[in-house]
Design brief:
The chain has helices at residues 26-42, 102-115; strands at 68-69, 76-79, 90-95, 98-101. By secondary structure, it is of the alpha+beta class. The N and C termini lie far apart (48 Å).
């Protein structure tokens, strides 16, 4: 099989940290190492997967951080129609004044068309 395209697939974890932690703490470094190790282990036998060992931090308590919770499913989301989207959170947007992930927005739309 010849692979012609490449895609980056990302995942993330949300971690509660002490207010004094700034990304350089031994606890956060340990969590990051465990996440990298888990990815490496999960794909060690698949030559078509190349773990990047890249880590990125998004501080959810920054004033310009674009995140919230979907009004229907309560998952952490980021509004792709606004600046500073966090790409490792679920895509969301405002629908009729309510923050909804795309999945819940679709479910609402389908439910509304079934009722019509």
């Amino acid at each position: 099989m010849t692979l012609e395209n490449k895609a980056v697939i990302s995942t993330a974890v949300v971690v509660d940290v002490d207010a004094s932690e700034t990304g350089n703490s031994s606890r956060m470094d340990s969590i990051a190492r465990r996440l990298r190790d888990a990815v490496e282990s999960a794909f060690s036998r698949d030559a078509s997967v190349d773990p990047t060992e890249c880590l990125a931090w998004d501080w959810l308590n920054d004033s310009d951080t674009n995140f919230g919770r979907c009004a229907d499913c309560n998952r952490l989301v980021s509004n792709y129609e606004q600046p500073h989207q966090i790409r490792t959170l679920i895509d969301a947007r405002i629908v009729d004044g309510t923050l909804l992930c795309d999945e819940c927005a679709y479910s609402r739309r389908e439910g509304a068309s079934a009722d019509a």
